[in-house]
Design goal:
amino-acid transport, alpha/beta, binds adenosine-5'-triphosphate, ABC_transporter-like_CS, 240 residues, ATP binding, High-affinity branched-chain amino acid transport ATP-binding protein, transport, four-stranded antiparallel β-sheet, Rossmann fold
């Protein structure tokens, strides 16, 4: 195993009953990297992230995180180990205020008042709009603002690795650009990120490296700018 990887996935398989959704996925994410996994609807992107978090059980292969095998580790222990998964659809708690939604991310240390205040301050600096709307119900935020809230909540736990599932889903183009700018900024601040996306152009536009997933298999992997310039990728995913 190349010891420098933060996340090392080897020959990972997953099934839904008799249907095989992942056919031996291997990938790695090094500390500090922003890696994009792009693929069409149904390629297996969401299943991959669910399997990494062990919300969906792997049927074979291995996941090593920070030197520890976590393939069969309970999901809450995976969170404690430092992996934070932001699912598709964001899942903020609509009736709760923005600040209360953020505080849900601090559950393991919520009694440490000074720490919580400092973390909130850090998140508000990253996302000023959340500070502005901190007393508003989360359900009143726009889709892009809810995505920022989901990211802010995840960051409160200071994860070592962020798994981000389709943050651009359902957002207008201007907001997509804003969300990807924020994802890039988080990475520049030192958060390691595995981003899965159907929007290949935007994802590869901010990533260091990328993988292309087709029907549960990695069919290409390269530096993100090489994938953006690749003719087959352009035809299949970039609308050229
Ligand atoms: P999307 O962008 O639509 O979320 P995806 O790339 O994330 O697509 P997955 O949702 O991981 O793809 O689906 C991968 C494959 O597994 C698809 O063929 C899908 O039909 C199948 N699948 C997903 N969830 C289930 C399920 N609960 N039961 C049976 N098959 C499923």
């Amino acid at each position: 195993m190349p010891s420098e990887a933060l996340l090392q996935v080897t020959e990972l398989t997953a099934h839904y009953g008799p249907i095989q959704a992942l056919h031996g996925i291997s990938l790695e994410v090094k500390p500090g990297e922003l890696v994009a996994m792009v693929g069409a609807n149904g390629a297996g992107k969401t299943t991959l992230l669910h399997t990494l978090s062990n919300v969906h059980k792997a049927s074979g292969g291995s996941v090593i995180f920070d030197g520890q095998e976590i393939t069969r580790t309970a999901p809450h222990k995976i969170v404690q180990a430092g992996i934070c998964h932001i699912p598709e659809g964001r899942q903020v708690f609509a009736p709760l205020s923005v600040e209360d939604n953020l505080l849900l991310g601090s559950f393991t240390r919520r009694k440490e008042k000074a720490w919580v205040a400092e973390e909130l301050e850090r998140i508000y600096q990253l996302f000023p709009i959340l500070q502005e709307k901190r007393r508003q119900a989360a359900g009143t935020l726009s889709g892009g603002q809810q995505q920022m809230l989901a990211m802010g909540r995840a960051l409160l736990g200071r994860p070592k690795l962020l798994l981000l599932d389709e943050p651009s889903m359902g957002l207008a183009p201007l907001l997509v650009a804003e969300i990807f700018r924020v994802v890039r900024e988080l990475n520049e601040q030192g958060v390691t990120i595995l981003l899965v996306e159907q929007n290949a152009k935007a994802a590869l536009g901010i990533a260091d490296r990328g993988y292309v997933l087709e029907t549960g298999r990695v069919v290409l992997s390269a530096a993100a700018d090489e994938l953006l310039a690749d003719e087959a990728v352009q035809k299949a995913y970039l609308g050229h």
